[in-house]
Amino acid sequence: GLANAGGRVGLWNGCQSDQFNSKFTVRGQITSQGQCVNMEGGTPFNGVRVGMFPCLGGTNEIWEYFF
């Protein structure tokens, strides 16, 4: 079914990637020891340097993973 507030999530074998109820997104900061993974300069491009820096709340600290 559709994602509703309070809806239950279950995991099982046999998910099909073309079904809307088999897709999830994780979004937010990736942190370790008070630092964030971010892109130097704040602009994504092929070859941008990525590293650990103090968390300042910038958009270059926000990562999305779709599965």
What do you see in this structure?
With 67 residues, the chain is mainly β. Helix content is 0%, strand content 30%. Strands 2-3-4 form a 3-stranded antiparallel beta sheet, with no helix packed on it. A hairpin with a 2-residue loop joins strand 2 (31-32) and strand 3 (35-39). The two termini are 18 Å apart.
Largest beta sheet: what is the strand line-up? Answer: 2-3-4
Oligomer: single chain
Count of individual helical segments: 0
Choose one word for the global shape.
elongated
Uncertain ranges: none
Give me the Rg, rounded: 16 Å
**How many beta-strand runs?**
5
Largest sheet: 3 strands, antiparallel
H-E order: EEEEE
Compute the average pLDDT: 81
What proportion of the residues is helical, as a percent range?
under 10%
The secondary-structure class comes to: mainly beta
The share of residues in extended strands comes to 25-35%
Terminal CA distance reads: 18 Å
